């Protein structure tokens, strides 16, 4: 079965850190552009970070100096290390895989076609 499953969310105080994991089955993360996204209640989905098949990363300004996306090829897992968390980071975080291999790995959510169910991150002030 082709799927991605997120884990690692939880409650953390402002200034703290969390590492999210996304375990992939049915495909190899090394072959795909992968990404992390988040959505808070009443807000639009926001791209948090993406990583290309060859490892190049791309972040929006809101996370570029605090978050790090990475792949563990042997474990077939995608990670998101989040540091210096603030209450505004509170959201459901989703892992996603690009619809197809190859091509550009942009931050546009429309190019991603396989999504997990999400893991909740709550940052208290």
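Q: What amino acid sequence fits the structure above?
A:
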């Amino acid at each position: 079965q082709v799927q991605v499953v997120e884990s690692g969310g939880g409650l953390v105080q402002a200034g703290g850190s969390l590492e999210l994991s996304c375990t992939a089955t049915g495909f190899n993360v090394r072959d795909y552009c992968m990404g992390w996204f988040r959505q808070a209640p009443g807000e639009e989905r926001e791209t948090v970070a993406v990583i290309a098949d060859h490892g190049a990363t791309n972040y929006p300004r809101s996370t570029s100096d605090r978050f790090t996306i990475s792949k563990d090829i042997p474990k077939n897992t995608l990670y998101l290390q989040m540091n210096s968390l603030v209450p505004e980071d509170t959201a459901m975080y989703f892992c996603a895989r690009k619809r197809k291999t190859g091509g550009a790995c942009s931050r546009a959510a429309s190019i991603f076609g396989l999504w997990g169910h999400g893991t909740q991150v709550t940052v208290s002030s």
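Q: And what stands out in the fold?
A: The chain has a mean pLDDT of 97.
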